[in-house]
Write a structure and sequence with these properties.
Gyrase A, domain 2, 26 helices, 16% strand, alpha+beta, 4-stranded antiparallel sheet, single chain
Length: 857
């Protein structure tokens, strides 16, 4: 009794802590002002799809970074060779690989000593791979050094992006590194990120070069001006890097009134600038920004004030932006926008209202069903479920999670799946009570028998959810985190809270037999199981036919892929008087090809899809060297131009048109997403197969995996026939269905395994029929509660979650029926085959092995 009391106190403290953590999310602003800030800040933040805003995913172009490191090494190396009198002849210097031949054998050892000094960095790590074949030497960047360069450049890039956004006065932007070469920028409240996109896409690498008269043939470069009208011949050697600029501000020329940029140099830059101007009186000094000459004034006198003025054909806004870029610093490598998503504030508020409404309706329906099914025991389950949701919000708040629309879907699905554990417990206690066992014994036996099933089903679901987190991005990760945390809180509340409440209600009545409501067909007497396997051939044939038809539908008519898979631009448009034909004609007249227009929602609401923009090859027509390899932004410009062009066409027809949502996904993102999605599904199936193989037996694992494959093909067919958009939300639905479907099959298989252990001599057909019958009420009730939880979202959720809710509703029906009419017949045939080989249906337990060894004389 003392032990139970201590455990009960711990449970109560954990519950109170979770609910206390969730409370700030419900407190009004007036109440929050009276509480400590550390407590009130413990809240969920709303995702961009719920509050409106934009997110940009930028990827780094690492080629210029490697080129600069290689060029610096080459120039420094050959300078030392020249100083040491070592003659050489360059054979090739392309793709960061240098090959040259030493002209004099006497200098070979000295040259090798110089080369060796370049092999390792100051930290002792190899930077260059050096290969020598007689007098022919090859030098190339090592992969380890490239990785180190990228990691350092990415860390600096994140800081530069943060400084640039801070300079704009943008409130609470979120900047984080994404993968190996990506930067994710989330900006609440920003619904037109075009200016931010341009700001972040500018490298702002400024350098100073001396202008030459063109008489030199080597050591020079040709660089165009900003307008492309004039080409300057400059010394290739950089006179001074822009990194020495410590401040820059917009100003106006007192003589002309034109906007200029006044800059200040740090102490090192000021001293260097004075020295270089002293020796170049009368020589033009070109200011080069990202490979283009801004201005090239002639030096009339020594500039020793530690600063200067940049003038050009600027507007005030252009000069202000240039000053901002110089203050924030240059990016070490170009960043290109490859994904852009924008949600208007109105759409965000509608999403919140929809999520709350459908969530509350779904929860109310689930709780009402539990009370109808189990009476007072259902009230206990409802209390446990309410605590579960409260603790889920508490844990999410502690981690500072961001609540998104898929996250709300995850919470609703968590509620539906959490009911399963409570139903399992109630059904087990009901079975023990029908055998005449008193309350205390029935409760202990019910929880003990339900625990193994709950653990197996939760772990298999966790495998699928983990893959969602590993391979998903953005909202999918939020969905995975919600489900993952929900699984743990559900296990805690089902095993600990529900048991605590049931024990409290039955205290003093431990010797009485508990009474549960009965439901006719679901409460068949022991010994009279339903003969489900009688229709095994029909079940398998129907399932196979539907799966084959789904595979055919996958090719014809095929799936309606979203921009997450195909790349391109999706713009949601809301107009008053524009018709589809008018839009289509306007797009054709403006040369926008391949546009797909889909009506949805209310009249005047359209989804406009434009295929991914092609990136034309950019070649230097003059065939001359440029100051640096310019980043290929043609794709970025073309893709961004699609959004502007679509908006311009629509507004030419209706100037009051609004654009609640914009999604722009590049081919790199879409290709990687498609590969990751396929890999996630395959690994999910493999992980679940391996787990079931270890926990059960090979034929159990094969039966479950084959059934999951059949369920998935039918769901794919559902997407093809209904024309639902197949996007990242759809992939989340597929992986969630894998978890849900395997969860259902584990419950049935767990009872079959129990039947094999209790009656090993019983025919396999009878064991399967009795096990399916014993779990029938749980299977139907769990599916019904999950359906009720998702039904409001499926009906009223709108286009944003249709790709999740509708296939989930379909999948629940398919998954439930397949557990009875597909998985069990497959297990039957595999079991008969195993039986024919003289093998037992289950491997012996450790206790059975010890017992058999004890009888050996």
């Amino acid at each position: 009794m003392k032990k139970f009391s201590v455990r009960g106190v711990i449970y109560v403290l954990v519950i109170l802590l979770g609910l206390f953590s969730a409370l700030p999310n419900l407190l009004p602003a007036s109440a929050q002002q009276k509480l400590p800030e550390w407590y009130t800040q413990n809240q969920l933040s709303l995702g961009l799809d719920l509050q409106g805003g934009s997110h940009l995913l930028l990827t780094a172009d690492t080629a210029p970074l490697f080129d600069k490191a290689f060029d610096d090494m080459r120039e420094s190396l050959f300078k030392q060779f020249r100083d040491a009198g070592i003659r050489y002849q360059v054979q090739s210097a392309a793709k960061n690989h240098l090959q040259f031949t030493l002209m004099a054998n006497a200098n070979a050892q000295k040259a090798w000593d110089i080369l060796t000094a370049y092999r390792y960095s100051t930290e002792g790590k190899p930077q260059f791979a050096i290969d020598r074949n007689d007098n022919v030497i090859s030098v190339a960047l090592t992969d380890e050094y490239k990785t180190a360069l990228v990691n350092d450049a990415m860390a600096r890039s994140v800081e530069v992006v943060r400084r640039r956004l801070d300079e704009t006065g943008l409130v609470d932007p979120s900047i984080s590194r994404q993968g190996d070469d990506g930067v994710l920028v989330q900006m609440p409240g920003v619904t037109d990120p075009s200016a931010i996109r341009d700001l972040l896409g500018t490298t702002a690498q400024m350098r100073f070069h001396w202008v030459t008269d063109g008489s030199q043939r080597t050591g020079v470069i040709r660089v165009p001006d900003m307008q492309g009208n004039t080409t300057y011949t400059l010394e290739k050697r950089v006179a001074m890097e822009g990194e020495h600029i410590s401040d820059a501000q917009l100003a106006f020329d007192p003589n002309t009134g034109n906007p200029v940029v006044n800059f200040k140099l740090d102490s090192v830059g000021g001293s260097l600038f004075a020295d270089m101007t002293r020796s170049h009186i009368g020589v033009p000094l070109a200011v080069v920004l990202d490979g283009k000459v801004i201005t090239a004034p002639v030096i009339r006198a020594v500039i020793g004030a530690g600063g200067g003025e940049i003038s050009g054909d600027f507007t005030a806004n252009e000069a202000k932006e240039l000053a901002l870029l110089l203050r924030a610093g240059a990016l070490p490598m170009p960043l290109h926008v490859i994904e852009e998503r924008t949600v208007g504030p109105d759409l965000g508020s509608d999403a919140i209202e929809m999520g709350l409404t459908t969530g509350l309706i779904g929860a109310a329906m689930v709780l009402a069903l539990m009370v109808v099914l189990y009476g007072r025991w259902g009230v206990i389950a409802c209390t446990s479920l309410a605590i579960n949701i409260g603790m889920l919000f508490g844990v999410l708040s502690v981690f500072g999670a961001t609540l998104t629309l898929p996250g709300i879907a995850g919470i609703i699905l968590t509620l539906g799946m959490a009911v399963d554990a409570n139903i399992l417990i109630n059904e087990r206690i009901k079975e023990e009570s029908r055998r005449g066992k008193p309350a205390g014994t029935a409760i202990r036996a019910g929880f003990d028998k339900a625990w193994s099933t709950i653990l197996d089903s939760s772990l298999t679901t966790l495998i699928a959810v983990s893959l969602l987190f590993m391979f998903g991005s953005g909202p999918v990760k939020g969905f995975a985190i919600t489900i993952g945390i929900g699984l743990f809180t559900s296990m805690f509340t089902a095993i600990a809270v529900t048991r605590l409440l049931i024990s409290a209600v039955t205290r003093g009545k431990e010797r009485q037999v508990l009474q549960f409501p009965g439901y006719g067909w679901f409460t068949r007497k022991a010994g009279t199981p339903i003969n489900f396997l009688r229709g095994r051939v029909t079940g398998l044939c129907v399932s196979a036919f539907l799966s084959v038809a789904s595979v055919v539908a996958f090719f014809t008519p095929g799936l309606q892929y979203g921009v997450d898979f195909t790349g391109g631009t999706l713009v949601e448009v809301s107009t008053q008087h524009v018709q589809v034909d008018e839009l289509r004609s306007a797009f054709e007249a403006n040369g926008i090809e391949g546009v797909s227009i889909q009506e949805f929602g209310n009249q005047g609401d359209y989804l406009i899809r434009v295929p991914v923009a092609d990136s034309p090859s950019t070649a230097n027509a003059e065939g001359v060297n440029t100051e640096q390899s310019e980043p290929d932004t043609s794709y970025q410009v073309a893709q961004s131009g699609q959004v502007a062009a679509v908006k311009q066409v629509v507004q030419s027809l209706d100037k009051d048109a609004t654009f609640p949502r914009v999604d722009m996904v590049g081919s790199k993102v879409s290709g990687g997403f498609a590969d990751a999605s396929i890999l996630a599904v395959l690994i999910a199936g493999g992980g679940i197969l391996a787990y079931l193989w270890l926990r059960f037996e090979s034929h159990f694992a094969l039966a479950a995996t084959a059934t999951i494959a059949l369920d998935l093909t039918k769901t794919i067919g559902f997407f093809a026939l209904t024309g639902l958009e197949f996007n990242l939300t759809a992939v989340a639905a597929l992986l969630a269905l894998i978890g849900y479907s395997i969860n259902d099959k584990v419950v049935v298989f767990d009872r079959i395994r129990e039947g094999f252990r209790m009656t090993p001599d019983k025919p396999i057909e009878e064991v399967l029929n009795s096990s399916i019958t014993a779990t029938l009420s749980r299977t139907v009730f769990t599916s019904l509660t999950t359906l009720l939880a998702l039904l409001p979202m499926g009906i009223a959720g709108g286009a944003s979650v249709a790709s999740f809710a509708l296939p989930m509703l379909f999948g629940i029906v398919i998954g439930t029926s397949s557990s009875i009419f597909v998985a069990s017949p497959i297990l039957y045939y595999l079991g008969k085959r195993r039986e024919a080989k003289g093998l037992a249906q289950l491997r012996p337990t450790s206790e059975e092995i010890r017992e058999s060894l004890a009888h050996i004389p």
